[in-house]
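Chain X:
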Amino acid sequence: MKPRLAKILAIVAGLGVLALAGLFFFLNFIRDDAPPEFSLRTEEELAATTTTQAAEEFDGINGPWVVGTGSQAGYRVVEDFVGGAQDFEAVGRTSEVTGSLTIDGTVVTTAEFVVDVASITSDSDNRDTQFRNRVMKPEEFPQSVFVLTSPLDFGSVPEDGVEISVAGEGDLTLRDVTRSVPVAITARLIGAEIEVVGSIDVLFSDFGIDNPTVERLIIVRDEGKVEFQLIFRR
């Protein structure tokens, strides 16, 4: 091998080692912790929220509701760095969420929400690139959808500010593949709004989703969660 070529290859190899070392340092010592799972809003968050309908105008829970401003949805997966950090939760979220629900007495008879997949982002550009190119492919599959398939019965009309936890079933569609899934939610009537938070366990292979593991670098576990925080208004 000519000396000049050997020198160039050595420099390239050295840069590769430095890049990997930098990534190792970032993954293990610099990156921020993932945001916590969604929960009902705190008193401080409620105080900072401006609603479009005053509580005194509220005329009961019966009827249709729509997803409004402040709603979010996204994913949570666990990443293990080869030879380093373990159990790191990676989270991507978006506020581009639409949906609706209908209440009749004490029963949620219909509910659905739709997520704009292309707008989901995390704290990592590299992860987002993988998400768009290998994992979810929003140019082909622009929306992810959840549709409730079994009514949710609260048992009684909820009082303002009281948390209610219920479990149900629905159809989750990711990349045009639909599967029946259980869903657990916590809800609360607060003024003229209904808050709903919950999560759905997802196995990638059930939806034909390629595992985004980066060989010899990052191992992404085969399961994850779809998470949501929905604010319904009239």
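Chain Y:
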Amino acid sequence: MDYTALYITLKLAMITTAILVVLAAPVAYFFAYHKFPGKPLVEALLYLPIALPPTVIGFYMVMVMGPKGFLGSFWNSLTGASLLFTFTGITIAAILYSLPFAIQPMKATFQKLDHRLLENAAVLGLSPISAFFRVVIPNSTSGIIAAAILVFLHSIGAFGVLLMVGGSIPGVTKVASIAIYEAVEMMDYRTAGLMALSFIPVSYLFLLLVNKLNEDS
């Protein structure tokens, strides 16, 4: 079994989850409590990764992160290195690909909060930012944890996007899903089966936890 690919997968999933929990929480808070012209259009744009095929997302990421893309050229001018076929590249891809799975659960949780809590916070003179950290976050832990779990599970299962952006470089960008695919191509069903089997109990336990959190919220 390719333990290095499993390590890269878990490393990628943990980094993606940590970054998205931090980045998506204020975005979800903003969309939960603010109205502005074009809000549905912006939300639909953020949720596009749910609807688009992974290869389509991967193609546009390659265009953006390639040498002639704005992100790729910026990264090259900053570091002198390419963004494609690197761990940093697949991390950015995983973050963008999993973004909706962080925003949606958090937004739903924030909207379920008793509005009187925010009204009381405003009466006490708390700014919206202070209310976010002192009222919203402490009362939304179950939803935030659920979002983190969904992002983690979505990240460890990513395939098409990561293959297009990072290729299959052992120890760098070769994640478990790609290793399983390559093992099947080589008719090494034992290795593919063992790696695939390792994900089932982890995913099942995490989903049980998400269901439990949803029942308690």
